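Narrative of activities, Objective 1.

The group set out to show that a structural description can be obtained from nothing but a protein's sequence at a throughput compatible with the screening campaign. Below is one input-output pair from the validation batch, recorded exactly as produced.
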Amino acid sequence: MGRVASASELIEATKLFSEPHFLLTPAGEVLAANPAARRAFALEPRAPELTLHDLVAEPPGRVEYFLRGAARSSALMPGRLNFRLPDDAEQQMSCLGGLLRPAAGGQSAILLVKVRREKSIPGFMRLNERIGRLTRALHERRVAQQALQAHSARLVELTGHLEVQKQEAQAASRAKSNFLAAMSHELRTPLNAILGYTELLQLGVEGAVSDGQRVQLDRIRETTTHLVSIINEILDHARYEAKEVETNLEGVEIVDLAETAADMIEPAASAKRLQLVRVLPEGPVIVRTDSVKVRQILLNLLSNAVKFTHSGTIRLTVEKEDDSVSISVADTGIGIEPDDLERVFQPFWQARENGDGTGLGLAVTNSLAAKLGGSIEVRSERGEGTTFTVYLRDSAP
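Output recorded for this entry:
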């Protein structure tokens, strides 16, 4: 514990203050007054013993109340007292009192009283309030910084976990795509052989074929062709997921391409007694794009429309815009539920009424449009039909 300052040392220290300061005993006896206090109250250097009661014009109880409060406060406690001035006038002044030295080692306690003009105290109080606010703000800021650091550390940790999970998911996706591609190749080879032998039998290479046998061979060919188309969809999806598809850009006449796709789908539409309407521009519409991929987009959308339309019309529309072409396929089929519209392009998603196929046709179509720098939109109303619109931009340099 440090040495307790003596009374003479404290008296010497108050001489440095520019404002009136008094050193008092807890009973209010004046031990010392600095030069500023002696000038303010016209006190002689060797003035007789004084008390705080002699300096103020206040009831004894009020003075004692101030002294008791000062003796209990290690900080300067503000107060107001009517002080007697040298010209016998009285003026209420603000004063700050606090315990400067507690009683210790046989020495008595000493109070410090600082006298200030009334106008100085509000500024002092405002400063104290401002310091208090700043202190609280700094504390809150430290707490917030600590919380932010904790959250940042947690975020870094979670980011690391997510990166690991992302890499694992990508590796699993690549493994799946490689597996699908390998299986598709392995299955497509024997199926193509079955198709070849079926055609040879239908041609009578091994002898005459009866009408009953021809019907059975037709069923084998149709079923095998359907399986090959499913495998092709799986293979295409795997290739797009693995980003192994390249584009061959060239000048493509979109109207001729649309006519060709419609001609290929028309037999299936006619078999269901559906009317296939073509709304095409009269002149050529040439766009720099990939003809193979655009043809696949058209065939996927048209075959999808035939599958889900039981009666009515399928409309194929081509429109030329400034630097792009829109291709729409609209049907009068069963339509799509509003809740399912956002899922139609997800891989392996299928409408509730359809258990046939892989659910990859629209996913592949969406990937094809994106690969060509375009997009695809869908509008549908349950029971009223569906419209798919593909927007292809001209990729001419």
